[in-house]
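Protocol check, entry for the methods section draft. Step 1: assemble the input record (protein sequence plus ligand SMILES). Step 2: submit for complex structure prediction. Step 3: store the structure tokens unaltered in the notebook. Ligand used here: flavin mononucleotide. Step 1 record:
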Amino acid sequence: MIDMFTPGKLGSLELKNRLVRSAVWEGMADDQGFVTDKLVTCIRRLAEGGMGLIILGYTYIQPNGRQSPGQTAIYNDDYLPGLRKLTDTVHKAGGRISIQLVHVGPQTTPDMIHGKTPVGPSAIKHPLFGTPRELTTAEVKRIIEDFGHSAKRAKTVGFDAIQIHGAHGYLVNQFISPRWNQRSDAYGGSPENRMRFATEVYREVRANANNLPVFIKLNLDDFIKGSTTPADALPLAEKLSEMGIDAIEVSGGGPASRKGPARIKIRTEADEAYFIDLARQTRKVTTCPIILVGGFRSPRVIDQVLASGDVDFVSMARPLIREPGLVNRWRSGDLTKAKCISCNGCFKTLAYGEGIQCLVEYKDKERYEKKYT
Ligand SMILES: Cc1cc2nc3c(=O)[nH]c(=O)nc-3n(C[C@H](O)[C@H](O)[C@H](O)COP(=O)(O)O)c2cc1C
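Step 3, stored output:
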């Protein structure tokens, strides 16, 4: 029976266990998006901590596709030496690393994108970020190409896989949505047209990544009135699976949603694996491996979900901010649940400008410094 320490495969990529670090904005790149030593240390700790696969935080493929300070960039070749340091470090520690490519679309502010107006599928007001400028068809095609260019760069510097960010209200996710996408060209309108951006991004990434596995993190439900529901997202999952995608990481929600991707108050085992129903629905319409994220904290829940056959891999984010060595701890026989209390204090540490931290640990300066210096 499969458990978390059973080796597995995603496409051609062999992984030593079923545990994936879901992409986390590390906030540790410099102010132009270049990899820093601190980011290398953060990722090295995860590789040494026993993760089967690490997915690097969302990395922007165009200058106007950036959301946050300290976000890593890959939109030109200048970024490659730094990114190479990351992949070399992970490989030296016996780990595997995927990049996550993003264009954040409307979910950004002009100060993050050289004073420009954020862009989106349509000029529809976002409750947190204001009204974007509608992309022209030519610009849409250019973004698709730039996903491909970035995939090629990622391959050049030794990433083991490429994940497209198709979740959490960013551009790929917004194109799917009947709420945010009200275009009248070939990329909007009918359900088929709304899928086109995601499938063309996939095709372009695949063409440029050659034999590297390609994944997508996909919202199966946006939890926003009038936006993407499983009725919109499942046909896309089915199509991507038919097109040969190597894995779908099931997620949901975003900053404007009733239910976000990173829920708080995960106290009991019943609170964990909160997107399991969406994963089961995705399983029914696909043949590719399914990775499930969202609230995993206990080895027992992880093993149950894997043994059920509903998913093939489990990914975690917040628990590894607090305990980068969590997987090795479990492997050593200490099977107590992750120490993360799901308070989302990690988001608050953004204000400190030192990258993402566990707020509980950050308050303990001595422990924090041991971890990152
Ligand atoms: C601080 C922080 C940063 C995140 N950054 C990303 C990101 O860059 N890309 C992404 O797909 N998800 C991102 N997420 C969402 C997580 O990958 C994950 O989907 C979510 O936190 C639920 O998993 P968890 O309960 O294991 O934390 C982030 C979450 C947190 C808490």
